Amino acid sequence: MTIEELDAKMSAELAAVQARITAEGETTRRHFDIVAEQFKDQTKVLADGIGRNTERLDDHEKRISTIESRRS
């Protein structure tokens, strides 16, 4: 095998490895985009639940304050 043939073979192998790395990078990016979107959706559900609980606690606080002010 000549040096030119070896160089061509190594160049082809390197190109194949680079193509696999690029393809795997794209697959990984899509996966993490999906994971990030799911995390965002779940975080929104959690934040909405916390907001509703905060409103309920504020309502209870107002009711308790009203009852306590009547006793004074």
Task: Provide a short characterization of the protein structure.
This protein is mainly α. It has one helix at 3-71.
Description:
The chain is mostly helical. 96% of the residues lie in helices and 0% in strands. The chain contains one helix and no strands. It is rod-shaped, with a radius of gyration of 31 Å. 0% of the residues are buried. The mean pLDDT is 94.
Protein topology:
Blueprint: H1 3-71
Q: Calculate Rg over CA atoms.
A: 31 Å
Overall 3D shape: rod-shaped
The helix count comes to: 1
**What order do the SSEs take from the amino end to the carboxyl end, as H and E?**
H
Entry keywords:
72 residues, mainly alpha, 1 helix, rod-shaped
